[in-house]
Every structure is written in structure tokens, then in C-alpha cells.
Amino acid sequence: xxxxxxxxxxxxxxxxxxxxxxxxxxxxxxxxxxxxxxxxxxxxxxxxxxxxxxxxxxxxxxxxxxxxxxxxxxxxxxxxxxxxxxxxxxxxxxxxxxxxxxxxxxxxxxxxxx
Amino acid sequence: xxxxxxxxxxxxxxxxxxxxxxxxxxxxxxxxxxxxxxxxxxxxxxxxxxxxxxxxxxxxxxxxxxxxxxxxxxxxxxxxxxxxxxxxxxxxxxxxxxxxxxxxxxxxxxxxxxxxxxxxxxxxxxxxxxxxxxxxxxxxxxxxxxxxxxxxxxxxxxxxxxxxxxxxxxxxxxxxxxxxxxxxxxxxxxxxxxxxxxxxxxxxxxxxxxxxxxxxxxxxxxxxxxxxxxxxxxxxxxxxxxxx
Lengths: 114, 244
Hints:
Chain A is an alpha+beta fold. Chain A has a single domain, classed as Immunoglobulin-like. Chain A contains two helices and nine strands; from the N terminus they run H-E-E-E-E-E-E-E-E-E-H. Chain A has a five-stranded mixed sheet with strand order 3-9-8-5-6. Chain A has a four-stranded mixed sheet with strand order 2-1-4-7, with no helix packed on it. Chain A is globular and about 40 Å long. By secondary structure, chain B is mainly alpha-helical. In chain B, helix 2 (31-55) packs across helix 5 and helix 7 (155-178) runs antiparallel to helix 9. The longest helix of chain B has 36 residues, at 117-152. The interface between A and B is large, with 38 and 41 residues.
């Protein structure tokens, strides 16, 4: 019974990072580059965010339910998805007027064409 | 910078203030305990903020999230124990861990931009306004919940505590899926067009009961399951025995 529970736990909760596609984002002068990230629907992806500013920033997204402090001159990793088609905004909580971006989720075929 | 400081103050202080208010209405704590909790919470937040850059590099750059998940779980358990046993130590742990979780972000923000000459005054004014609004809201909430407690008994306060604590597990779950510790599941519903989390009401509901406009399947299951377990444990016979 314990083994079955452990197996169920692994199937439901644990995931494998090897299949996640990586997207690199740079924060510079309180701006995200690129500000638009297009990803395929129903796929988990890995965002590598490098903060090139001298001050920390907080990656925040109500739409994606993500929140992470980005320390200066360091790279941070955030996994997002799987998501349905649509736009998901994110912003830097310490500089919300400038550091803004959007994750655009499109069909897998449409994404492959791009 | 003024508006950003105001919003930062509200976002980071409100969840702590709300938890504190509900716990205080549920079982009033002496002034000495309140001050001890406040000072300990501030000190812990400061130390945690100092350790954050180091923590963030541990366990494949996921150390910070692991520690935050731990704080969320500790808060949930401490609130549960406080609700059942009314132990002062549980109150202390719940509030201090919650303060460490939220205020450390706020302290990072303050210390980062404080040295900037242009931003100093805006930062100060925004923060004072934020603290003021937060205190006013907390006072009103205290009297509202207190009045409801008199009308409906403790059931409402226990339900509020259950939902507020379940929200901490929801946060832990988001942090776990953010680091790929658990697999993210599909979004159940999208209420962004009805009530955005960025709106005033959305922010208050998020801090009060963990409202999410786009929750995933696992979040919904965890939220309702943990809140139900919380309420069931609070009404378990061992509580009434002890109180008798």
C-alpha cells in the first residue's frame, strides 16, 4: 500500500525537467528583454532570467502565479506552464512602470511556424 | 516611486496584518507577547533578507524557494495548533514565520532603493502611507470580525483562519511548481475579466483568503482539502475536552 501511495505521489507531483524548453530573458535598465515571450500551449517551459541591473528586482505575475526575487548580476530560473492559449502579463514589482512583459501562449503549430 | 512604494507596502504588509488580526480576534494575546512577536518578526525578516542571496544559490538555485515553502508550511501548522490549543508559542511562530516570508521582500526593496537620492523621499512617503492604510484597514477588519464573532460565534473566525492558512499552502504550491518540484497542472478557470488579482478587491481577497484568478487543478484541490482538514481538526472532540 505504501509503495502504491509513493508511486501515485511520484506520478502526480514529480515532474521531469529534461523536456522543458528554455527561454532566456534579460533585465537591464529596469526593462525586460524580450518583453514578449511566445511559448507553445500545454507545455511547461523554463525561463532563465538574468538581472543585469545593480539593484534587485522581483519578477511578479498574478496571471502566472509566479513571484521571485532577481538578485543583481545573477540568473534565476522560473518554470511556467502548461498554459492554455492567451496572454499572461508579468512585471517587476520594484519597477512596475518600466519592467513589464507578456508571455503569449499560442498553438504548438503556430509556435513552430514562428 | 511613490505609488510603487505604496503598493509594495500594501502587498507585503497586508497578508501579515490580516493574519495577525484574525488570530488576535480568535484569542487575544497580551501586549508583551505582541511586542515580542513584532520585534522578533522584524529581526527574523532582516536576517532572512541578509541570507537570501546565499540561500538563492543553494540546491540548484532553488534554495530560496525551499525556505519559503518551509515558512508557508510552518505558518499553516502553527495557525492550526493555535486554533486548536490556543498556545501562545504557536501564535508567536505563526506571525514570525509569516512576517519573515513577506517582510523580507519589503526590506529588500527598501534597502535597494534607499540609497538612491531621487527615490528616498518618495520611498519614505509611500511607505508611511502604505503602513497607515494597512493599519487603518486592519483596525476596521478587527472590529468587523469581532462584531461578527459576537453575532455568529467562533465558526466564522475558524473558517477565516482555515482559508487564510490554506492560502499559505497555495503559495507553497506555486513556489514548488515554479521550481519544478511538482508538475504544474492546467488552469481550472480564468476569472481575470471578472475580478483581477491586481484590482483593489482582488488584492484584499488574495491577502485574506488566497484568491487566485487563474488557479490550477492542484491548487484548487489543495486549497479546499487543507481548509476542510483544518476545520475538521478544529472541531475534533479533543479540542472540546481540553477546553472543558
